[in-house]
Amino acid sequence: MSAPRTRFAPSPTGSMHIGNVRNAVFSWLFARRHGGSFVLRIEDTDRSRLVEGAVAEIKEGLTWLGLDWDEGPVFQSGRLDIYREHARRLVDEGRAYRCWCSPERLAEMREEQKAAGRPTGYDRHCREDSHGRTEDEPHVIRFAMPLDGETSFHDEVRGDISFDNALIDDFVMIKADGFPTYQFASVVDDHLMQITHVIRSDEWVASTPKHVRLYEALGWEPPKFVHPSLILGPDRSKLSKRHGATSFVEFVERGYLPDALVNFLSLLGWSPRDDREVMTRDELIAAFDIEGMVNHPAVFDVQKLEWISRQHLRLLPDARLAALARPVLEARGLVSAPADPGADAYIAAVCGLMKERLTVLPDIADVAGYFFSDDFDYDEKGRKWFAGDGARDLFEALAEALQAVDWNEESIEAAIRAAGQTMGREGGRIIHPVRVAATGQTAGPSLFAALAVLGKERVTARLRRAGAYAEHINANH
Ligand code: GLU
User: Fold this and answer.
1) Cα of 220 from ligand 1 centre, angstroms
2) Closest ligand 1 atom, CA of 13?
3) What is the pLDDT of residue 246?
4) Which fold has domain 380-475?
5) Is the pLDDT of residue 474 over 90?
6) Atom of ligand 1 nearest to the CA of 10
7) What is the Cα gyration radius of the chain?
8) How many A from CA of 197 to the centre of ligand 1?
9) Ligand 1, residues 201, 208, 225, 247: which to mutate, most atoms within 8 A of Cβ?
10) Where are the alpha helices (H) located in 387-455, listed in sequence order?
11) H helix intervals, 71-207
12) Kindly report the CA angle at 187 between 284 and 269, in degrees rounded to 5?
């Protein structure tokens, strides 16, 4: 295949919907797979729906995801002359016409159609007759659809599709404000930008016959149309706000890694046709193809996203994870800026120990707080280890024994077990109290590995603190 050109063409009318981001992922993967180009086009022709900041969000979002674009952003609002020129040509050739019908007339017409139980649509009042109106008066330009017959096209995912022309309106190409509609501008741009594969939401399938007729009228070869599967919520209705987060920023804020999100989105309507699910970006690029796109709805399953997210966190080297974790830990006041090699090595060691417990990166601050702060309470369930007369002595003896130890996992374990034996304690009866004293928790990663990371100073101080606490509660009984 010669190098394909794909595009992402969002309208800056609000925050990016996760389903639309999926289309960007497909378009980007396809371009990268075949050494083609990925174009960013901002479809800002609906002036009443523009949302301030939306373009910045689109650019930041794509950048965050690592979906770099080769051209653009191209703003349609900067290309009005181009659309008008092509529209004028179609008017001159009789393929489009000017329409002066007022919004009031159109509303009245619709009411009458409804009352008569007929389908609503433009009645082609101006198609053959300008009714004495001139170009200087406010008007729109409409496309003259064939009145009968069918329009067919091939969709790379859905196969051959046909539409009855009689059911398609003489749609507006240029609005009264001089701006083009989506239908017209996207066709002109996809052609002029030499887009080879139009990958976009399924909601545009029904518009495609209009586009096909426009290409034909303009004398242009249409691109390949690719409408990936519809995305459903877990209850199998179309994914919407009711299903929870649907805007892309919510997933960024939750703390998913870009690679995990790209991986998850790529599997909504596509599969590598083997049993792989967790895939790095390079693996996705190498595997992505249109043949793997499926023609049935994809279910948006947050549990699957979380599973993929966990796998990606495990794939990260500790030092990389630590670099990502640092800002999270700083924000929680667990680590202070600026970065320094000693602190970063410590964060990396903590990440290595705790990464299997993370679903999203920010979880590190919840599960690993005791590595960074002494300010923790003893878990309710672990308090029993402080009760009884021997508790204070146990913690003191442990602190004493560990003070003298060469600080590595094996010697720590040996010293703790030996001290336990001297006091008639084995297994859980020595492990559990040490864990509660050193971490506040009753469960966690391998205890000896955790103590090795925590360091001698912290561990012995916490054991002494536990001894003092045992003395305090036993004195009050
Ligand atoms: N601006 C349209 C949208 O955001 C683009 C559709 C297309 O990709 O053609 O839905």
Assistant:
1) 20
2) 4
3) 86
4) Arc Repressor Mutant, subunit A (1.10.10)
5) no
6) 4
7) 32
8) 13
9) 201
10) 390-403, 409-422, 428-439, 447-454
11) 80-92, 103-115, 182-192
12) 30
Sheet hosting strand 5-8, strand order edge to edge: 5-8, 37-42, 71-75
Atom 5 in ligand 1: which residue has the minimum CA distance? 9
Q: Is the pLDDT score of 155 beyond 80?
A: yes
308 near 48, Cβ under 8 Å? no
Ligand 1, atom 2, residue with closest C-alpha: 10
Distance from C-alpha of 207 to C-alpha of 448, rounded to nearest angstrom? 64
Mean pLDDT of the residues in the chain? 96
Catalytic: which of 241, 304, 355, 384? Answer: 241
Residue 361 CA to ligand 1 center (angstroms) comes to 32
Distance 439 CA to ligand 1 centre (A): 52
Is domain 79-226 annotated with CATH 3.40.50.620?
yes
> Ligand 1: distance of its center to the CA of 207 in Å?
11
- State mean pLDDT over 408-436: 96
Q: Taking a C-beta distance cutoff of 8 angstroms, is the pair 459, 371 a contact?
A: no
Residue nearest to atom 3 of ligand 1 (CA): 10
- Cα(363) to ligand 1 centroid in Å equals 35
Q: Assess whether the region 5-77+230-305 and the region 380-475 belong to the same CATH fold.
A: no
- Nearest residue to 365 (alpha-carbon basis) of 336, 330, 397, 391: 330
**376-389 per-position pLDDT tens digit:** 999 999 999 999 87
Q: What's the pTM value of the predicted model, to 2 decimals?
A: 0.92
Nearest-atom index, ligand 1, CA of 8: 8
Per the DSSP assignment, residues forming a β-bridge with 96 are 143
For a mutational test of ligand 1's pocket, the pick from 11, 41, 50, 202, i.e. the residue with the most ligand atoms closer than 8 A to its C-beta, is 11
Q: Does position 477 have pLDDT exceeding 70, yes or no?
A: no
Q: With 70 as the cut, is the pLDDT of residue 402 above it?
A: yes
Q: Mark whether 456 is an active-site residue.
A: no
What would the pLDDT profile of 231-290 be if each residue is shown by its tens digit? Answer: 999 899 988 888 887 899 999 999 999 999 999 999 999 999 999 999 999 999 999 999
What confidence tier does 465 reach under pLDDT thresholds 50, 70, 90? very high
Domain boundaries of the chain, sorted by first residue = 5-77+230-305, 79-226, 316-371, 380-475
Under CATH, what is the fold of the domain 5-77+230-305? Rossmann fold (3.40.50)
Q: Are strands 71-75 and 231-232 parallel, antiparallel or unpaired?
A: unpaired
Peptide bond into 73 cis (omega under 30): yes
* Residue nearest atom 10 in ligand 1 by C-alpha distance: 10
Considering only the C-alpha atoms of the chain, give the largest distance between any 2 of them, rounded to a whole number of Å. Answer: 109
Tell me whether strands 140-143 and 96-99 are parallel, antiparallel or unpaired: antiparallel
Cβ < 6 A, ligand 1 pocket: 9-11, 43, 182, 186, 200-201, 204
